[in-house]
Amino acid sequence: MLVDSDYRNIARARVCGSEAVYGDVLSHDTLDELPFEELTWVLAAEPDHDYNDLVGIALSRTLGREHVLTVTPAEADGRAAHLSARAPWGENGTYGALVARHWSGRDFKTTTLTGSFDMKAFREKQPEATVLFTIQGGRLLPVGDSDEPAPGDMLLYQP
What we know:
single chain; 4-stranded antiparallel beta sheet; globular
């Protein structure tokens, strides 16, 4: 589900078959519309890290901090880690890095690991890839929250 205050993004998401809500995720009206019982993870992915921090604070109360993620701040600026959502992807997970790869044609992809195509083989084939999530047993898990991916697990990555 996408929540955005730009109608163009909402329209694009709906054309692609995604559920989308117009509004600011920090507004009470928008928060009242969100089906929290259906949400597992929230990703705050704005170029403004202060806004992402506010989203992390607001939604951590409902979902728990472990379920609220953010893109990595562009610089280590000494902000208090307990105030923001988790940023599990390191320097490759900054808003700028993710967007730059997207606009250079490196869209998000998935692949399933097998006995002969394990994580080592994936890294050899995709050395520059940023793995964002694994899907293990039907559960979407951010990198770092899951065991080492095994055969049958799916990787969500950006080449």
